[in-house]
Amino acid sequence: MLKDKLQPFIDRYNKISELLSDEKITQDIKKLTELSKEQSELQKIVDKANEYIQTLEAIKENKELLSDKELGELAKEELKELEPKIPLLEEEIKILLLPKDENDDKNIYLEIRAGTGGDEASLFVGDLFRAYVRYAESKKWKVEIVSESPSDVGGYKEIILLIKGENVYSKLKYEGGTHRVQRIPTTESQGRVHTSAVTVAVMPEVSDTQIEIPADEIKIDVMRAGGAGGQHVNKTESAVRMTHIPTGIVVSMQDERSQQRNKEKALAILKARVFEKYESERLAKIADTRKSQVGTGDRSGRIRTYNYPQNRITDHRINLTLYRLEAIMSEGLFDEIIEPLIAHYQAEALKEAGL
Known about the structure:
With about 350 residues, this protein is α+β, with helices and mostly antiparallel strands. It has eleven helices and eleven strands. An eight-stranded mixed β-sheet has the order 2-3-1-5-4-9-10-11. A three-stranded antiparallel β-sheet has the order 6-7-8, with helices on one face. The protein is flat and about 85 Å long.
């Protein structure tokens, strides 16, 4: 019974409350911080558990009053209001009981890179970048362009963003994969639809405590930063290329005039990429049958198609099709896709957990 599963959380929460009033604990900053964090994490479950238990008790009390001549009608009305709350509360509680993805509240690096399709792919990188920025603005998140490689036609060969805010990774973690676009290029005289693709990678920003890369595992090359037409952005060797030797992951950075700043940026992205690779491999070993991108670490699969002639956007993982492509892209309305994705993967996780 769900009620029985909740009691240990309530007991632990109450125990922590007792400990936090202990003078010995209040003088131990490390222990105090750990307990305060644990209590904060339990707060949502306990609040919802108390609401659930109180609702169950209220239902029981009102059922006992049904045969009462004076209070029976009132009890019946109360039950009409209380009973529909139970399945909703149970669903909310089950989701809260799922193991938390420790990366969910982290900031992210979002990489968008042109794939097949040449100029059209680079133009779509720009479109997708602007749509994600609008989505971020709607969430009051901060967006910083870490690195950009413009194409000759006004798009981008690649762009890397740092997005900061509340629950950024939890919302955008399912965006990683291949995004296919179908539309008629402005240069197409026959009106034929061209298909191109871009790849998106979503990586949590990692701290030094999460991943430490030994200096002897990194190869650093410095060079002059190249501008358009082969010109040098400056005459000093400010551009940096970092290679993580064990994985072969390479990061190049030349956006800053300072070599040191380029090194700092490159190292931050390198750490995020290495962490994401190891994390994906770890999750794949734990649950290699799961289809979600996060579970399998699969970054090559086509996850979504954007068909402009039909004003259609389709997410292939959940067979969701919306005929609102222009509105979603121009206004950054990604929640129309992201929320069903989250619901789908939560349902899968609940099934796996037997809840």
